[in-house]
UniProtKB/TrEMBL annotation:
Regions of compositional bias (Polar residues) in chain numbering: 138-147, 155-169
Protein name per the record: Homer protein homolog 1
Signal peptide: none
Gene that encodes the chain: HOMER1
Pfam families: WH1
PANTHER family the UniProt entry points to: HOMER (PTHR10918)
SMART domains registered for this protein in UniProt: WH1 (SM00461)
InterPro entries in the cross-refs: Homer (IPR045027), Homer_EVH1 (IPR044100), PH-like_dom_sf (IPR011993), WH1/EVH1_dom (IPR000697)
This protein's record includes keyword Coiled coil: yes
Domain of life: Eukaryota
Amino acid sequence: MGEQPIFSTRAHVFQIDPNTKKNWVPTSKHAVTVSYFYDSTRNVYRIISLDGSKAIINSTITPNMTFTKTSQKFGQWADSRANTVYGLGFSSEHHLSKFAEKFQEFKEAARLAKEKSQEKMELTSTPSQESAGGDLQSPLTPESINGTDDERTPDVTQNSEPRPEPTQNALSFTHSAAISKHWEAELATLKGNNAKLTAALLESTANVKQWKQQLAAYQEEAERLHKRVTELECVSSQANAVHTHKTELNQTIQELEETLKVKEEEIERLKQEIDNARELQEQRDSLTQKLQEVEIRNKDLEGQLSDLEQRLEKSQNEQEAFRNNLKTLLEILDGKIFELTELRDNLAKLLECS
């Protein structure tokens, strides 16, 4: 049945700089699907990765290859046939370890297959040569490679505390300002989350369309295989060969049905993500409305504070004028008291003289 994907993951793909042989050159702008394929006709294992329709990795696993972990999330291997070194950057150490385990497993399988082939050649004494086009394999499409890894990053919102003011009106104003800053920070965080979810939603929508096309292709393939089984049962006179071929076709149909089931589950998961994105959009709209209400309230408080300041200034001016008038009155009263005192003294002297 040709090549079949047996393990897939997602990673950032790099190749060693052919000039310096030291620096890594990225061959994909974002994480792409990297898959192990098994060619049952040639009994070989290959690592394949496509970026759109371009094959950025096409490496046949040989027994002398070694996959090396250079960090917690990065690994590399050298391909002498392609005359390059491939590097993969994973989202977590678990994905790197899983890929390395599969590499070792398929490398051992390739070694056993090579030994078995050599033993068969020795027994039959019929030497064989490798085809000159051994590295050129059947073309692959992006639909044959599946990935399952996604990441989410949380956002952190910081709240600022308002500084207390001496008056109650000022306290209300600064408290409202703190609430406004808090909602602004919340709104900024939700805008960031909304942008990320929008990008993920667009990518998921594109993936859903692609998977729907794959599902249709799988269904067509299943129908074609069913028809082929019917034709073979009617035409072929070799019952054993027909039975074997039928078994293989049924197995392929079963694999396609399992693939369809996985795709349907993935579509359901994407629908849930879309619903979550809509809920976040509604929350963002609600917070925007609350922020507008807080801003209106702040403007009202600012107007009240300005009016109070004007009234306070007017009251201070009136008190100052009253203080000045009272001072003048006290000065006049002191003069009158002094005159009355002199008058009393003069009257007392007149009385004594008389």
